[in-house]
Amino acid sequence: MKTIAVIFGGKSAEHDVSIVTALASIIKPLELSRQYRVEAVYIAKNGAWFWDDKLKDIRLFSSGEIEQFMARSKPASVQFDGGMTLVKAGGLGRGKQRKIDIVFPSMHGTYGEDGALMGLLDLAGIPYVGCGLEASVVAMDKVATKQTALANGLPSNKFMYFMSKTLEDGMSEALRQTKKLTYPMFVKPAHLGSSIAITKVANETELRNALEVAARYDDKIIVEEAVPNLIEVTLPIIGNHDLTPAYLEQPLVTADTFFDFETKYMGSGGKKTGGAKAGGKRGAQGYSNIPADISKELYDKAEAVGLGVYKALGCSGIARVDMLINSRTGDVFVNEVNPLPGSLYAHNWRQKGISNVELVTRLVQLAEERHAERQQLNTVFTTNFLQQF
Asked: Which of 1, 99, 114, 366 is deepest in the core (most CB within 10 A)?
């Protein structure tokens, strides 16, 4: 029986979302498959690694007892020995080791989903679920995603970006440059997910405040024009070469709001989020139409754009492509790509007829297939270069 390490938590603003994805959508169905030994690896907010079966219980985190657990537990270490081995020290010289065959990352945001963890696993030579290093880096940068889409003939709404340091030194110049765009606009940290620190602005005062907020979270800020007559859609996709899309999903939000953190994860019906509308299906990410309630022509067009973006970025395993539609003109714009969809968007795949267990086992198979392909590449080049020294 192969051993899978599910790594979650991390030094990220999306730390808590990562925990829920790992425990509810990855570890539980992997164990239900009875095909793998599953090890829970939790990375604390300070970067310490912990490895214990107790970490599989959401109550440890929801109760706040995780702090006491960490205080009385010794952090685990990772031994890279032509692979990956978890090591946990024990009393009287006794310890515990576990050789890992596959890693299933559940690391949303920085130092995980952004390619940091993938680079480490590539160096270790171990298969892992999801997008590789290069695709993860591009997908987690909203600016790079849009630039890659445009370079491949895929449309994006108008945008510009600023570095946080530039804003510190020249906010007035940044505001002057944004006059090339039309209000309303969205201001977003370029590298964060889960709609954290995203602000919709309607004037220069709001824009200045939003830029200052976003700059606290990221070193790159994107400003983009809002799409009029908006329909938001999102398309989860799995596959390496042969791609399988889930249903095109339409989050239900009002025309003057957007699909923010509260709507996605808190189920709020408050002032900012709009709440539920009749007819929507309740999913992990709020109320949605699954499939999207749009014409077949527009549905097919958006699905084609989503698949095109997945290929253009070189995604593998799983990703989710978010798009913006102008319902009046029929234009479909690339918004962003999420290389690790929250909760794997399991609610959508269930509508498609793919259970949680089928989803995670298929993703593990794709990880092994991708790893086997990469092993065929030459990474060593023999020369007599050192003999001259």
From this structure: 114
